[in-house]
Structures are given as C-alpha cells and as structure tokens.
Amino acid sequence: MHIEIAGIHFALNCRDADILPDAGPCYPPFLSPCVGLPETIRVDLDLQIGGLPDLRGTELLFDGQSWSLHRAGRDWMIALAARAPGLPPAWIARIDSSYMRGTVFCDELLVRRDGGLPSLVNPVLNRLDQLLLMFILAPRQGILIHSAGAVLGGRGFVFAGRSGAGKSTLSRQFQAADKKDLLSDDRMVIRRLDGAYSAHGTPWAGDAQIALNRSAPLRALCFLHHAPANRVERVDPRSAFEKMLPMVSIPWYDRVAIDQITFSCEALTRDVPCYDLYFVPTPAVAGFLEEAIPC
Question: Pick from 254, 231, 202, 247: which is nearest to 69 by CA?
C-alpha cells in the first residue's frame, strides 16, 4: 500500500497479510500507486505480525495518553498506548534515526482471519503517519499546523486556530458558498520548496470531514476569531509567530526538532502575509475574504 501526504510517500509492505484499506472517507484520495512529484520523499515501512519488541531497557523520551517515544541505540521506538492494563499495545514501530525506514510490529488484535490469507488493519493511519511526517518535515522547512485550508483563485489560504476557533465552521461556510477546493478542516502542511511556500491538504480531517490531496502556492496565513462582523487585520511577523507556535505540531522532547521547526515558523511569518480573520459564520465570508485579501 502507498500513501502520499504533502510530498511524503509512505510505502508499506507486509509479507504476512494483505493490508486492509482504510474504512473512513478521508484517506482514499491519499492512496497512491507510485511516487508522484520529483521532490517526493520516500519512507519504507515493513509491517510484521507479532514479535513486538520489549520496551524495557529503552530510554523513555515521551509518554503521552495515546503513544510513547523511546530510544533504543540509534533507533526510535514509537508505541501506541496499551489498550488496557496488562495488554500489549496494538503496534510498536522501530524506526531508524532518519525516520525513513522501519518495521511496524503488529499485535494479533489487528489481524482479520476470514479464510485464505489473513488481512491486517493498517497500523500506520491516523497516528504513526502524522508522527513520522512531523519529524521528517522538521529539517526540511515543513510544518504540520492545526488549521483549515482552501484554494481561492489558485492560491492557498491557511486558517489556523485551536479547537473551537472555527476551522470546521469556516470550512462549511466555504462549502455553502460553493467553494470546492477545500484542502482540510483541521490539519494542514506548509512546506518551503525552492524558496516558495505551499499549502497541502492532509487526510486528518475535523468535524466537516474535509480532506483533499492537493497543494497550492501559499497566499496568506490567517488566525481565526468568531466576531459579529467580517474583517481582517494584518499581523506583524513577531505577533504572528507567537500566535502560530501553539498551533504547530512540535516534539517538545526533541531539542533539534524544536530549533528546526521554530526556525521554519519564524521564516514563514516573516515571508508570508499574516492576518487576524474575524468572521461571521455565513457563506458571505468567502466573498469577503477574496475581496479583503486579493489572490
């Protein structure tokens, strides 16, 4: 199975079973039969049933509610949180130091045996792909940001906001205004390639379930606010950096990645126009934005 997100190509191989396609509506546009663009970065992951590594003796770097990160020699170990006390995690990934190659060891919980070759629930989707993409983008002037995104007049607009700021609400207003090129309503990737910034849709959608595998040259970064009237205000680079940072996926336990990502954020807010977008949740906001920030 092949998955391509923002120019990062995940090539998945399993010799033990067929890999089941995702049952959700958002991943199919990101399934790719082969590497696409010349600048695509390939990540090779072997999926294996059983043989979950013993995490004892590894160095625990991060322990969150849903996953943990460990160091084992020169490799990284990423483990999904145990589903219940005393039970193993559904998968543990052992990834090399470049985050470009690794093996994902899968518990029998993920195996479906209905006769013939067994099938494997894809362990990469919705968690491991996000984590690997965050690390892979860090040294390559790329970031993953909590935001909605749209293509207006051929240019990309990114609408950043915390939970409840209105990302899905704004996206629904664009839909009601018949704006079809909506990239995401929850998470976007911004990359700098050959000196130019681009906005990329991702499969990690929000409540509106918007996920388009497309990119566009980045025109503006907007910070969302509910308001009684539509208006935009230009934000200076320093203020934009401060507003942006809490919405960017940053591995705070990795000093090198922190420096790389914050450098990218500083450059982005310096080079790309940033605005506060105050909006009323009606379809009229789409036309207002196109006039207020010409493409």
Answer: 254
Axis-axis angle for helices 284-292, 167-176 (nearest 10): 100
Query: What's the CA gap between 114 and 66, in Å, rounded?
Result: 29
CA angle, residues 240, 162, 99, in degrees to nearest 5: 85
Burial 134-154 (b: 16+ CB within 10 A, else e): bbbbbbbbbbbbbbbbbbbee
Interval 146-195: pLDDT, tens: 999 999 999 999 999 988 899 999 999 999 999 889 999 999 999 999 89
Report in angstroms the alpha-carbon separations of 6 from 37, 59, 191, 214, 263. 10, 31, 8, 8, 20
Beta strands in 57-195 (DSSP E): 59-63, 67-72, 75-80, 91-95, 101-106, 111-112, 119-120, 142-152, 155-160, 182-184, 187-193
State both tokens at 227.
Answer: 């308001």
